[in-house]
Amino acid sequence: MPRPTKAQFTALIVASMMFMEQLDGTILATALPSIANSLHVDTVATSVALTSYIIGLAIFIPASGALADRLGSRSVLMVAICIFVTSSLFCAQANSLPFLACMRTLQGIGGALMVPIGRLVIIRSTPRDQLVRTMTWMMLPATLGPLLGPVVGGFITTWFSWRWNFYLNIPIGLVGLGLTWRFIPQIREPSPAPFDLKGMVLAGGGLALLSVFAELFSHAEGSITLRVLMLGAGSLLMALYCIHAFRIPAPLLDFRLMRIPTFRISVLAGAASRVAVGSLPFLMPSFLQIGMGLNAAQSGLVTFTAPIGALITRPFVPAILRRWGFRKVLMFNGISAAVVFTLVASFRLPHALWLFSLILACAGAAQAIQFSAYNTIAYADVPASNMSAATSLYSTMQQIMLSAGICIAAGTLTVLGQIYGHTTPTLGDFSAGFLATGAVSLLAVPFAASLAPSAGASMSGNKR
């Protein structure tokens, strides 16, 4: 691969932040029993360490673009890294569950500001004809985070201590802080619109409640009454926000951007695809360990083939898009994702595990192409003045759809368990979960088909 340009180097810096944030978001799940033992609480109660992070993430993602417009992208990015690193240090030293939950919320706030603002910097500082290649560089390290998390978390917790899962963020964050100061440009709007505080309360509160509902639902925790209240209150706040957003000229999440065809189709088609991807961290480890009887180490090694497939494929994404264009690539990937999920659902242990690993590698390759394309074409026709609002809305929709994937997968297992009267999911239940989320991913195909054949041609270089 050729030496990275300045824009690609900036993308790698942002990708390192994404890697740290995504690794932290998944690394802790394997450490919950150890945390419970150390803090002398029930293991179920430690799930608050996951939900508190999601709350901080959900509240501040909508505000990320508006804050960057006012304070400058580099300044907000450096503050976000400082918040993330400092709260990681306090998490590592926590001696009570409430204190750990508070620090995890602060971590979520830092994570909410890092990723969308990093993406905004790349979009604003990169010429559109170079955006596909630059986005490919950005997604390279970030691909490893979600699937490396359980493997790394299990190793650190077993051989060291759960506290080192948090200490790991400190050197990565400090290096990122120095690189941000040196290489990330300071970009701000000269005359930003008034900050939408009411919108932040409504949208942030609604997203936080819906995210907590998704977390409780996916782990079958909390009473039915509590879950219904979370779902109802979150939906009500989001409905009130929608009414509010269409009454002011510059809302925090501007749904009027959905009038731009390439942005709308990328959001909607990407939503269907992200539902499937969001279900994988929930379904796959349980499918391999409970359904197929593998131990945690074997499960981690098998699932690690997915990011390997993604890493191998990503350098070829620009050439693929240049040859076939966004429309054909996204249509084909929407179909291939459903096929891969069907193959996963039909797999049984008597078959060789290398074959299953090959299927997962193909899944990783498809995701690499798919999300590089979605994350690029979304901004093909967005005016420069609306880039901050577009990144905020796009990042928020990503978070919602990833949570929705967990809900659909968990709901499928819950319903099947109630129908057949078993408390532990069976292999057939997991297969049904994969089929359900795979079917949702097929919805991306008609959305992608509605793209104009020339959509994003200035980015992909496709002249046909």
UniProtKB/TrEMBL annotation:
Keyword Transmembrane: yes
Chief location of this protein within or outside the cell: membrane
Protein name: MFS transporter
Species: Acetobacter oryzifermentans
Domain Major facilitator superfamily (MFS) profile: 10-456
Pfam families: MFS_1
InterPro entries membership: MFS, MFS_dom, MFS_trans_sf
Keyword Magnesium part of the UniProt annotation: no
UniProt KW keywords: Cell membrane, Membrane, Transmembrane, Transmembrane helix, Transport
Transmembrane segments: 45-68, 75-100, 135-160, 166-185, 197-218, 224-243, 296-317, 329-347, 353-379, 400-420, 432-455
Domain of life: Bacteria
Bilayer topology annotation: Multi-pass membrane protein
PANTHER family documented for this protein: BLR6921 PROTEIN (PTHR42718:SF46), MAJOR FACILITATOR SUPERFAMILY MULTIDRUG TRANSPORTER MFSC (PTHR42718)
Subcellular localization: Cell membrane
